[in-house]
Structure formats: C-alpha cells, structure tokens
Amino acid sequence: MDDGERTADLGFAQVDLDRARRTGDPEVVYGAGKTARQVVDILRTLHERQPERAVLATRLADDAIALVAAELDGARIDETARAATLGPLPIAQGLVAVIAAGTSDAPVAAEAALTVQVHGAEVRRIDDVGVAGIHRLLEARDRFADADCLIVVAGMEGALPSVVGGLTGVPLVAVPTSVGYGASFGGLAALLGMLNSCAPGISVVNIDNGYGAGVFAARVARNARPRR
C-alpha cells in the first residue's frame, strides 16, 4: 500500500486502508445488508492492499458464502460463525478463552473465536458450560483461569458471566445472545442481567456481538504480559 493511500473508492464503499496503522487492526467487512458481490469486492480489495495478514467478513448470507468460496482463492469459510477470512492469520500473542453457555450460543461464540484469531490472539474454546449444569463450569475452571482475557457468551437470563466473574480475576467481556423464550425479549433480559452483574471486572457488548467482544479480548491479550 502506498504511504499516501488511505482509502480505496469502490463506488459503493470507501474502504478504509489506514485502519491497521491507526488502530493495529484492519477494516472488517460487515456482511449483513451487503450484496454477495459487494462482500467479495471489499474482501478482495483489502487482501490485495494488505496481503500480509488475514481480512475478515462477518454475518454472511448463503449467497455471499458461496460467492466468496467460488471467487476468492484461499478463502476460509466458518459455517457456524457465518464468516470468512482471506489471507494468513497473524502470529498469536496472548490467550483468550471463549466460554459459551450452551450449544444454541455456538454461532456467536464462533464469531467471537474467529475474530480473536484474526486480531492476533490464541483461542481456547470451552463450550456448553451453562449454569443449569454448573458442575461443568467448575470442572473447566483450570482451562480458563490462565487466560489473558475471557469472552463469556450466554442467552436466557445471562447469568454465566456473573458466575465466571466470581471464580477468576481475569478480565472478562460478556456477550448476551438472543437465545431464549419470549420473556428473554431477544436477548434484552440477558443484556440487562450482564449489565447489572454484581461481579466486578465485567464489560458487556451488545446482543449477539461476538465480533465486538473478539476485538476487545484480542487487544487485551496482545497487550498482556507474555505468558507463553
């Protein structure tokens, strides 16, 4: 990329080529609301200008996944996360543990985990350890207590981050999901439960925002004291 080139004008989008220099992380393609062609064109542009590291597209519809796979050589598709990456992942610095309450939370947890990897940290997945079977979480404590940051994903009443926050002092970002019956109000109950947690050291992102949690956690892990 030329030192003076900050934006690529694609007509329908002004692609930010300077974000990695400003923030340490390149621009990411949010696929929802974009056509499959737009997703492919933005991914290709980012990869051509910054081939040394992976670029990420999230929230992809079926047609976008199909077109990315067909037209972008080397693209990797994560069907669970509904996301795609193009280019090499960076060398991991620090460790993020992604803890998911239930199997229904898997798409958000997968988006968070992939985002962490694209943004330069190692990931450890701990799945299906919700509070309905709290013994599973207690048995897994040794698998997350040594992490540099935690992402805790839960729907329903959103209790899991509070419990995890009471078991460890590792920085924690909570992700409410839209999983639950009617009174969960599409994740609002979980969001409010996490915001009102009595466990200290918890930050909260928006409903189903695995991407935002992944960026936050990766930055924490990258800046933590090296442990490995």
TrEMBL record:
<protein>
    <submittedName>
        <fullName>Nickel pincer cofactor biosynthesis protein LarB</fullName>
    </submittedName>
</protein>
<dbReference type="InterPro" id="IPR000031">
    <property type="entry name" value="PurE_dom"/>
</dbReference>
<dbReference type="Pfam" id="PF00731">
    <property type="entry name" value="AIRC"/>
</dbReference>
<dbReference type="GO" id="GO:0016787">
    <property type="term" value="F:hydrolase activity"/>
</dbReference>
<feature type="domain" description="PurE">
    <location>
        <begin position="94"/>
        <end position="226"/>
    </location>
</feature>
<dbReference type="GO" id="GO:0006189">
    <property type="term" value="P:'de novo' IMP biosynthetic process"/>
</dbReference>
<dbReference type="InterPro" id="IPR039476">
    <property type="entry name" value="P2CMN_synthase_LarB"/>
</dbReference>
